[in-house]
């Protein structure tokens, strides 16, 4: 059930005869403008604080208590910065490129299952849709680098496009292995397949060792897709000035930075949903929480359950985002030929091997996970 | 006219406009960018017919793959991206004649076909039906597609390989 | 199901219109005092040398072509893998397994061919270069005590 349907089901709180597309647009506005963009902004602040922690300094602490309003200040500054497009820049493509990147990164939030009732669009092809929109980002980077008539931007952009495009393959194969094990492509059904039903079905990362390895393949490929260290050669701060976004200033640069963070959050949410069990906790069935509170005659239980589900899901996603930030300040940058070797000579064979292994496991053990097998053996013996 | 009708008409019109830009614009980079628009329009038409898998596959393969290859090829050499195409009436003469002939042929085909009656598309289980088709009646074609892809892969690589003539010719560094 | 497509469309439309709106608003808010120094291309403070065209390298194009073929393969494998689990539980998984991994194996052969021929190396003839360096008179002395690796 998608968020739009959920909103239209709140019949007591809305005036009648509101056409359905209003709920559709309201759902999109809530998820993109209410979650993706503010959290993307806050992540820039959190990253600076985390970086400061790792480097034993304080980080931003002037604007607002503990510097929390820093990202507001940054946003306002970006709106007010002058546009320094080069004389020969191709203005149409120069303006189009950040739009493509943002459309790809933010549009993919439609298929992310925050809870059972809070998903933008409960598509039958959920995972495939996420992969489709993530492939628009490479176009935006390439076109943006080309249109700013700058050698360093062009080099950074071409490297960036080659990197993003290469790492889509291990990403796709890791997603394929999850589809093999779960038999579904719809995100809500994949998450529901990891529910703790007392019979041992647990998170897919612990389903079989091949999926465990593919989680790390997915993680590395997602890092490379978002241009994060150790794969941030396209924005190489020490090499290419600023890579593909050298000539972008003000809000255009802000859109690139926002899209990069939104990409990180999106991949972390997808990892939390398909590998780490989404909103399910190990020994608890959320649907059993009945507090009995009610408001205006209707029970508040579904709302409280949804709130718990969202909190658990976001908790898992934030752990992954924290690890991504941790890696940025820990690992050195990979050289471009090491990067390409890593993708084509290591990740793709490993991912294929795990795909074959996972399908053999599903075939031989009839789709049971390791935990089910062990508890089956202990129960029988 | 429901929203679906509006959407389909919008996709078709957008596709036609973008294709016109692809065919007629003198700057090849703008033509490649307009190709993105026309491929997105095709994806929209697929989605409105209920073929969600095909629409997403169109986005992944065409917009995310073929356009990247085309853009890399266009950016490869100055003689490609600085050229002006179709500048001048004389160069447009033969393409116009051929296009009008093709359009008349397609109109004749449209008018003389018996289209049958309107059916509502089946929106359920598209992916499962594609999977059953690919492993059922079309299994041999599926494997044949694998071999064709292999030929394309090796052929394109062999053609595009740089020629290492001398040991000190590096071919640039990036 | 069509309703879900419409939901996804509203997400995509909002995500595409948002940057347009942001850039439009920003256009009115920002100052604009251009002069030729500001508009020049940035090259670490020097005057720009030459056109903005770099000598393109074939490796980008080769990587893009190999990516395209494998992208088609991954996209075609999705519907088949969707069927696999039910077929494994209810029987009849052998033809699906053979078909899918036959497809995969054929393209894997292509990948191995390119690997061996050095087409997916970023620096194309790294091994030959090292060999040539070892044989070069000026550098021979540096490899004298090094074991062959």
Would you write up a description of this structure?
- The complex is a heterotrimer of chains A (381), B (174) and C (149).
- Chain A has 381 residues and is mainly alpha-helical.
- Chain A has one domain.
- Chain A has a two-stranded antiparallel ribbon with strand order 1-2.
- In chain A, helix 3 packs across helix 10, helix 4 runs antiparallel to helix 6 and helix 7 packs antiparallel against helix 9.
- The longest helix of chain A is centred in the N-terminal third of the chain and has 35 residues.
- Chain A is globular, with a radius of gyration of 22 Å.
- The model of chain A has no long low-confidence stretch (mean pLDDT 85).
- Chain B is an all-alpha fold.
- The C terminus of chain B is likely disordered.
- Chain C is mostly helical and 149 residues long.
- Chain C is built from five helices and no strands.
- The model of chain C has no long low-confidence stretch (mean pLDDT 80).
- Classes of the chains: A mainly alpha (381), B mainly alpha (174), C mainly alpha (149).
Characteristic key phrases:
heterotrimer; A: 381 residues; mainly alpha; two-stranded antiparallel sheet; globular; C: 149 residues; Methane Monooxygenase Hydroxylase, Chain G, domain 1; 5 helices; 0% strand; flat
In short:
Chain A has 381 residues and is mainly α. Helices cover 62% and strands 1% of the residues of chain A. Chain A has helices at residues 3-8, 20-54, 70-80, 91-107, 126-134, 136-147, 151-182, 187-192, 209-225, 251-274, 301-328, 336-364, 370-380, and strands at 294-295, 298-299.
């Amino acid at each position: 059930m998608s968020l739009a349907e959920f909103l239209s089901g709140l019949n007591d709180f809305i005036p009648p005869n509101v056409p359905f597309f209003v709920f559709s647009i309201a759902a999109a506005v809530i998820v993109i403008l209410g979650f993706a963009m503010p959290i993307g902004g806050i992540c820039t602040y959190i990253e600076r604080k985390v970086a400061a922690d790792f480097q034993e300094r304080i980080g931003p602490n002037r604007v607002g208590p503990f510097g929390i309003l820093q990202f507001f200040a940054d946003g306002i500054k970006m709106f007010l910065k002058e546009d320094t497009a080069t004389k020969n820049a191709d203005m149409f493509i120069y303006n189009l490129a950040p739009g493509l990147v943002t459309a790809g990164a933010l549009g993919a939030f439609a298929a992310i299952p925050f809870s059972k009732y809070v998903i933008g669009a409960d598509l039958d092809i959920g995972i495939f849709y996420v992969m489709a929109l993530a492939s628009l980002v490479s176009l935006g980077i390439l076109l943006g680098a080309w249109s700013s008539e700058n050698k360093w931007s062009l080099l950074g952009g071409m490297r960036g496009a080659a990197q993003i495009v290469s790492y889509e393959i291990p990403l796709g194969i890791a997603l394929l292995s999850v589809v093999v094990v779960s038999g579904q492509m719809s995100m809500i059904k994949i998450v529901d397949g990891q529910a703790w039903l007392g019979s041992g079905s647990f998170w897919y990362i612990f389903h079989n060792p091949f999926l465990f390895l593919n989680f790390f393949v997915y993680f590395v490929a997602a890092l490379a897709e978002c241009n994060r260290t150790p794969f941030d050669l396209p924005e190489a701060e020490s090499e290419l000035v600023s890579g593909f976004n050298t000539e972008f200033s003000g809000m255009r640069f802000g859109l690139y930075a926002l899209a990069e963070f939104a990409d990180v959050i999106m991949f972390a949410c997808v990892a939390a949903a398909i590998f780490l069990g989404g909103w399910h906790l190990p020994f608890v069935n959320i649907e059993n929480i009945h507090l009995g509170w009610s408001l205006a005659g209707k029970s508040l239980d579904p709302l409280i359950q949804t709130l718990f589900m969202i909190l658990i899901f976001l908790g898992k996603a934030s752990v992954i985002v924290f690890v991504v930030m941790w890696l940025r300040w820990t690992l050195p940058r990979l050289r471009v030929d090491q990067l390409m070797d890593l993708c084509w000579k290591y990740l793709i064979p490993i991912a294929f091997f795990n795909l074959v292994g996972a399908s053999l496991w599903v075939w031989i053990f009839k789709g049971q996970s390791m935990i089910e097998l062990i508890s089956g053996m202990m129960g029988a013996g | 006219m429901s929203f679906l009708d509006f959407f389909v008409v919008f996709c078709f019109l957008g596709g036609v406009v973008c294709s016109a830009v692809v065919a007629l614009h003198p700057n090849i980079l703008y033509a490649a960018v307009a190709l993105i628009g026309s491929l997105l329009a095709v994806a929209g038409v697929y989605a409105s017919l209920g073929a969600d898998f095909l629409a997403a596959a169109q986005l992944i393969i065409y917009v995310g793959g073929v356009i990247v290859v085309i853009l890399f090829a266009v950016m490869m050499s100055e003689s490609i991206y600085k050229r002006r195409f179709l500048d001048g009436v004389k160069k447009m003469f033969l393409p116009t004649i051929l296009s009008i002939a093709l359009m008349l042929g397609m109109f004749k085909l449209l008018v003389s076909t018996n289209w049958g009656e309107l059916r509502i598309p089946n929106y359920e289980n598209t992916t499962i039906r594609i999977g059953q088709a690919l492993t059922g009646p079309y299994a041999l074609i599926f494997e044949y597609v694998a071999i064709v892809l292999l030929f394309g892969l090796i052929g394109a690589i062999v053609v595009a390989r740089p020629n290492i003539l001398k040991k000190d010719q590096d071919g640039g560094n990036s | 199901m069509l309703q879900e497509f419409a939901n996804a469309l509203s997400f995509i439309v909002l995500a595409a219109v948002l940057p347009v709106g942001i850039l439009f608003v920003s256009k009115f808010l920002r100052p604009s005092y251009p002069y030729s120094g500001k508009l020049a291309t940035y090259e670490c403070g020097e005057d720009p040398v030459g056109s903005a065209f770099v000598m393109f390298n074939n490796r980008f194009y080769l990587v893009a072509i190999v990516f395209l073929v494998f992208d088609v393969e991954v996209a075609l494998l999705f519907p088949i893998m969707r069927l696999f689990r039910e077929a494994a539980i209810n029987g009849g998984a052998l033809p699906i397994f053979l078909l899918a991994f036959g497809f995969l194996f054929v393209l894997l052969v292509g990948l191995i061919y390119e690997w061996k021929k050095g087409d997916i190396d970023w620096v194309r003839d790294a091994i030959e270069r090292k060999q040539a360096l070892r044989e070069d008179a000026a550098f021979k002395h540096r490899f004298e005590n090094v074991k062959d690796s």
